[in-house]
Amino acid sequence: MTGTPELRAVAYIDHLAYERRLSPLTCKSYARDIRILLEHLGTDDLAQVQSPNIRQAIAQLHGKGLGGRSLARMLSAWCGFYNFLIRRHGFQHNPCHAVRVPKSPQKLPHALSPDEATRLLQFPVENILLARDSAMFELFYSSGLRLAELAQLQPDDIHFAEGTIRVLGKGGKARIVPVGEYALQSLTTWLALRLQIIKPDVTALFLSQRGDAISMRAIAYRLKSRARQQGLHQNVHPHILRHSFASHVLQSSGDLRAVQEMLGHAHITSTQVYTHLDFQHLAKIYDAAHPRAKKRN
Question: Do residues 38 and 27 make contact, with C-beta atoms less than 8 angstroms apart?
């Protein structure tokens, strides 16, 4: 069991990156959470850490204002780290297993209404960058992609005849998702223009003005800017279009399992949050239409 805690943490992050094939952003998040653990434990002998030590660290972080969701994510990272130490370094127990974090109220994801989504996506395509933006935003909403999934797409991932796209999701898991007609039309327009700016050896579907692969930050910025120009005053980010896709498909179909497959959720519990959004939609209709619903002024 040789090695400092820091070296073991590096080995674990390498394991996540190269063996489990988690995304760079996910690995960065794990590394940050484990660094916080090591700072709070203040010991070089991780094998001697017990559950009370973990509970104390959780309590201190909660006292600094961290909520239940953040603490649960952090505890999950710590637990995975100790499982790794058990498998690879001969540790005998995982001190995180008996620890619970404070619960926090469930925060429902925000989604655009269908009218707001339509307003966001209806803008004149007057140049090559607007053609690219139209294709990106239509694809976000049409197929419910994560930001990282869209950023790493390549032209060969699109299957126009079948109306589908191949997506590489979390953990390197591939899935096939449908693409709507509007998104396919926008993609066709963009692919023809893309050839004018692409640099040699660049394989990304979506490009920057310089012909390189566009960054995730640039995608998020373009979407937020477009939302403001379209008169949407809320903070519209890529995941809002994913939430909107999920809630609108669920409202229309009621098929939770199909939405789970299209979103690439490993567990149905991750998808069930959208049933609450669907209920909110129905409740608003009821309140507006039923003569004995909520009192109106």
Answer: no
Rounded to two decimals, the pTM is 0.61
Output the pLDDT for position 177.
Answer: 84
- Name the residues annotated as catalytic: 146, 170, 239, 242, 265, 274
Residue range 17-35: mean pLDDT, rounded: 92
- Compute the distance between CA of residue 183 and CA of residue 49 in angstroms, rounded to an integer: 53
Q: How many CA atoms does the CB half-sphere of 278 hold within 13 Å?
A: 18
- CA 24 – CA 26 distance, rounded (Å): 5
Question: What integer pLDDT is reported at residue 282 of this predicted model?
Answer: 43
What is d(CA 96, CA 20) in angstroms, rounded to the nearest whole number?
A: 21
Q: Do residues 127 and 39 touch, judged by C-beta distance below 8 A?
A: no
Q: In angstroms, rounded to a whole number, what is the distance separating the alpha carbons of residues 149 and 140?
A: 10
d(C-alpha 261, C-alpha 195), whole Å: 33
Higher pLDDT, 265 or 235: 235
For the chain, state the CA radius of gyration: 23
Domains of the chain: 5-89 (1.10.150), 114-288 (1.10.443.10)
CA angle 66, 68, 71 (to 5 degrees): 65
CB 219 within 8 A of CB 227: no
Confidence of residue 240 (pLDDT cuts 50, 70, 90): confident
Q: Is the pLDDT of residue 148 over 70?
A: yes
Report the C-alpha gap between 119 and 123 in whole angstroms.
8
